[in-house]
Write a structure and sequence with these properties.
mainly beta; 4-stranded antiparallel beta sheet; 11% helix; 34% strand; globular
Length: 431
């Protein structure tokens, strides 16, 4: 009599759980544009959601802690003249986000840590180069200020956001609409899918397709009969892929291994309401004290609901096997180094003591639209000669801004005193 052998895996019992009602974000007018992106982007500081907006395109940015009902007059990020189709947080600066629009432009925004009193309308920089709508954005995983965009013109452009220049334009590799684009771990290659039903592996610096038309899949999984767009999220730290269908109400997740059959079904998280979109938190934004290995932000018609994936463990100690060192916020390369042919793996950090987002870095744009000229500090490396003028300019601009704010406050105080005097005179007159 044969015995069934159960596959050993620490992720066999991963379970999903929706956050409590008071941890959701309510009264958000999620965009109704028919586009295939996730409409949501999240990092350890902020939650960004593409929303309905009259006369153009907009998205809302909320601090993660600002749960509950969102005021209908909460400031938006506006500036596009047509609907926003995709948004993506910079992996190397939690206060910088890029947006792509039907108006053919990409805008890069600086988000303050404080809640603004009015709409944010001025981007750091606007990138123009596509002839049709721009529907896909993806920051380079290891190089500073490198951003990829893909448009309805079947063109992929890779930008140096720091200078506003197009580094590369891949305009003859796709005969039809590009559906998705993804970098590999060190940003040396791209994977793309296209309406012609072909998967391409591209070396962007050579401008060449290095592999496509794969004959046989490693694994084939029948999902369901839904015709909604599938949003895949892969966590390389755990080798788990999560599949979320737009218009579906479930998240299916699978473990990928190096031995046949390669892909192993783990479980399905199901809920009653379908998802309009989905955000996926980077690993450094998770709560390691609760054995949280993934967190999704599910968009409903009028709200956003966090969904937590947890590995059940009895111990309260840090679980080394669940949390290997993971990519942190420091870039490994500068844009020109990557363009010249250099590759580098992500700079990793430990999550043993949790992750504390770095303090807000206000990025001042010079005439060359440089986001940040400082190179990451290294052993024995002090500030370079080019850092000093930048720091001086930044300090001077801050002092000027403080002076202007002080003058504005003084003017308001004088106006208030004048109004109080007028009020006293009116009261005295009525007596």
């Amino acid at each position: 009599m044969s015995r069934r052998v159960v596959r050993q895996s620490k992720f066999r019992h991963v379970f999903g759980q929706a956050a409590k009602a008071d941890q959701a974000y309510e009264d958000i007018r999620v965009s109704k544009v028919t586009w295939d992106s996730s409409f949501c982007a999240v990092n350890p500081k902020f939650l960004a959601i593409i929303v309905e907006a009259g006369g153009g395109g907009a998205f809302i940015v909320l601090p993660l802690a600002k749960t509950g009902r969102v005021d209908k007059n909460y400031p938006l990020v506006t500036g596009h003249t047509a609907p926003v189709l995709d948004i993506d947080w910079c992996p190397h600066n939690d206060n910088v986000i890029a947006s792509a629009s039907d108006d053919t432009t990409i805008m890069v925004w600086q988000i303050p840590d404080y809640t603004p009193v009015r709409n944010i309308t001025e981007p750091i920089i606007t990138l123009e180069g596509h002839s049709k709508r721009v529907g896909i954005l993806s920051w380079h995983p290891t190089a500073r200020n490198v951003l990829l965009s893909a448009g309805g013109d079947n063109v992929i452009i890779i930008w140096n956001v720091g200078t506003g220049e197009a580094l590369l334009s891949l305009d003859d590799l796709h005969p039809d609409v590009i559906h998705s684009v993804c970098w590999n771990n060190n940003g040396s290659l791209l994977a793309t899918t296209c309406k012609d039903k072909t998967l391409r592996i591209i070396d962007p610096r050579k401008g060449q397709v290095v592999a496509n038309n794969f004959e046989e899949p490693v694994a084939l999984q029948e999902m369901d009969t839904s015709n909604g767009v599938l949003l895949p999220f892969y966590d390389p730290d755990s080798s788990i892929v999560y599949l979320c269908g737009k218009g579906d109400s479930s998240i299916r997740y699978f473990e990928v291994t190096e031995e046949p059959p390669f892909v192993h079904y783990l479980n399905t998280f199901s809920s009653k309401e379908p998802q309009r979109g989905m955000g996926f938190m980077p690993k450094r934004g998770l709560d390691v004290s609760k054995c949280e290995i993934a967190r999704f932000y599910k968009l409903h018609e009028r709200k956003c609901e966090p969904i937590v994936m947890t590995v059940p463990r009895k111990s309260d100690l840090f679980q080394d096997d669940l949390y290997p060192d993971t990519p942190g916020p420091e870039p490994a390369l500068e844009a020109d180094e990557w363009l010249s042919g250099q590759d580098a793996e992500p700079v990793l950090i430990s999550l043993r003591d949790g992750y504390v987002p770095p303090k807000h870095r206000e990025l001042r744009v010079t005439k060359r639209n440089i986001l940040d000229e400082r190179r990451p500090a290294g052993p024995g490396r002090g500030p370079s000669a080019s850092d000093a003028p930048l720091a001086q300019r930044t300090l001077e601009s801050l002092l000027e801004e403080i002076k202007a704010l002080r003058e504005q406050v003084q003017a308001q105080e004088q106006r208030i005193r004048a109004l109080e005097n007028m009020l006293c005179e009116l009261v005295d007159g009525t007596d």
